[in-house]
Amino acid sequence: MDNITYLQGHIMVFLLICIVATLLTFIATSYAVIGVMKLQEKNYSKKEVRNIMNKIVSDGLFGLTLSIVAYKIGVWLNQKI
Fold first, then answer.
1. Which residues have C-beta within 8 Å of that of residue 77, sequence separation ≥ 6?
2. DSSP per residue over 9-42, as a string?
3. What span, in angstroms and rounded, lies between the C-alpha atoms of 50 and 16?
4. Average pLDDT taken over every residue of the chain
5. Is residue 59 classed as helix, strand or coil in its secondary structure?
6. Model confidence over 12-43: pLDDT tens digits?
7. What span, in angstroms and rounded, lies between the C-alpha atoms of 74 and 68?
């Protein structure tokens, strides 16, 4: 119950962090797509590109790193506000 009371006073900060994290995820995904398109332009076969992207995205470290970066940005924004 204490968390709900705390959140009521900081709802705008919470929403800002959620929006920024969503935008950063969108940007990271966009750059991943751009990277895949560049790989395809280098005459890699679709199977090779798919294998490369599957290796990157399926690695647990990728998701963990993305989450930690988003968390750190959220903490930094929280300290600035």
1. 13, 16, 17, 20
2. HTHHHHHHHHHHHHHHHHHHHHHHHHHHHHHHHT
3. 35
4. 79
5. coil
6. 888 888 898 888 888 888 888 888 777 766 76
7. 10
How far apart (Å, rounded) are the C-alpha atoms in residues 81 and 76?
9
| Residue-wise burial string across 55-78, b where 16 or more C-beta atoms lie within 10 A, e elsewhere | eeeeeeeeeeeeeeebeeebeeee
**CA 63, CA 5: separation in Å to the nearest integer?**
31
Confidence band, pLDDT 50/70/90 cuts, at residue 44: low
* Token output for 26: 């969108």
Question: HSE-up of 41 (CA within 13 Å, CB side)?
Answer: 6
* Long-range pairs of 51-58 with CB within 8 A, sequence gap ≥ 24: 56/32, 57/32
